[in-house]
Amino acid sequence: MGTAVAALDAMVRVGAVQTAAMSAMVEAGAGRWGVSRVRRAFALVDPRAESAPESKVRVALLLAGLTPVPQLVVTHAGHFLARVDLGWPEQKLAVEYEGAHHFEGEQIVRDDHRYAALLAAGWRVIRLSAADLRDLDGVVRRVEAALGA
């Protein structure tokens, strides 16, 4: 399901298809084979997702009953602090997917400063990599544990 949603997220994000048009296509498919799966995937589409891995993590969390805010803007004392991939503002929990570009050039230094600022403001950050995508159940457990803490 995550892969399908990731593809739909990307199509909506870049404007290749509008959600209204996609909804009409889903409705027009009533009675056709596989339309129930398409409906489930369409219900999870969110154009705020900025990468396929981020979409896959979000879908796993949503299917587990967790509802993160995608691309959450975090402020502290009235000042912009960061924009995180997925977050729970009330619990001050952020989930960040770090692809390969996070380890190129100065990006790792910028990320370290951003995470230090989040931590100093009382936020907790769960950092994910490609390896975590192979165990999304484990990611869900980590987030559930953090939200329960």
Describe this structure in words.
With 149 residues, this protein is α+β, with helices and mostly antiparallel strands. The chain has two domains: 46 residues, no CATH class; 80 residues, VSR Endonuclease (Endonuclease, Chain A, 3-Layer(aba) Sandwich). The protein has a four-stranded mixed beta sheet. A hairpin with a 4-residue loop joins strand 2 and strand 3. The mean pLDDT is 89.
Number of separate strands: 4
If you average the pLDDT, what whole number results? Answer: 89
* Number of helical segments with 4 or more residues: 6
Range of helix content: 40-55%
- Please trace the helix and strand order, writing H or E for each element: HHHHEEEHEH
- Tell me the structural class: alpha+beta
CATH T-level topology of the largest domain? Endonuclease, Chain A
Which segments are poorly predicted (pLDDT under 50) over 5 or more consecutive residues?
Answer: none
Strand order of the largest sheet: 1-2-3-4
CATH superfamily of the largest domain: VSR Endonuclease
CATH architecture of the largest domain: 3-Layer(aba) Sandwich
CA radius of gyration is 17 Å
Q: Please identify the top-level CATH class of the largest domain.
A: Alpha Beta
Give the overall form: elongated
Distance between the amino and carboxyl termini: 29 Å
As for the number of domains, it is 2
- Proportion of strand residues: 15-25%
The major β-sheet equals: 4 strands, mixed
